[in-house]
Specification:
Elements: H1 18-41, H2 48-60, E1 63-64, H3 65-72, H4 76-88, E2 92-97, E3 100-108, H5 110-131, H6 136-149
Antiparallel strand pairs: 1-3, 2-3
Helix pairs in contact: 1-5, 2-5
Length: 160
């Protein structure tokens, strides 16, 4: 007798302890989401990491690289590479911050603002593909649960 299994029963991680399985499931879903989004963004010449950086700049305006590393939870070298790549494509540029010789703010170019707008439409379509089948109450619960896993703004997220 071979009963049909529901999506929740079909996890190949069911043998793991619950605390381990939850983290592994989140990681697996993340990789799937990132792959689908990167595949969809490829025609624009960007990846999810570029899109995330550009979306923050589009919503917040120019920010220093330090501010971007904090908001995106990236290390300095990773963000530096992302900004280098955006500059090569003329999507963003670094400009000196008046009054601080060492700081540079990252600004979206006109082309960058157009590209992020196109990317947001694509990301919305990918989001619909990934999550559109979920009933609204499940989606709200998922979003709420994931937000609770993030550290409060202004903290480093380490347990006390």
């Amino acid at each position: 007798m071979n009963a049909a299994r529901s999506r929740s029963d079909a996890s190949p991680l069911a043998f793991l302890p619950r605390d381990v399985a939850t983290g592994m499931l989140i990681s697996t879903v993340h990789r799937r989401c990132q792959k689908l989004l990167n595949d969809a963004l490829r025609p624009l010449g960007i990846e999810e990491r570029h899109f995330a950086t550009m979306a923050v700049l589009d919503s917040r305006g120019p920010l220093t690289q330090r501010q971007l590393t904090d908001l995106l939870d990236l290390d300095k070298s990773s963000l530096g590479r992302i900004v280098d790549e955006l500059e090569r494509q003329n999507l963003a540029e670094r400009r000196a911050v008046p009054g601080d010789r060492r700081a540079h703010a990252v600004h979206l170019s006109t082309q960058g603002r157009q590209r992020v707008s196109e990317a947001q439409q694509i990301a919305g379509q990918v989001g619909q593909q990934l999550f559109g089948h979920l009933p609204p109450e499940i989606r709200r619960a998922l979003d709420g649960a994931l937000r609770q896993l993030l550290p409060p703004p202004g903290t480093d997220g380490t347990p006390k």
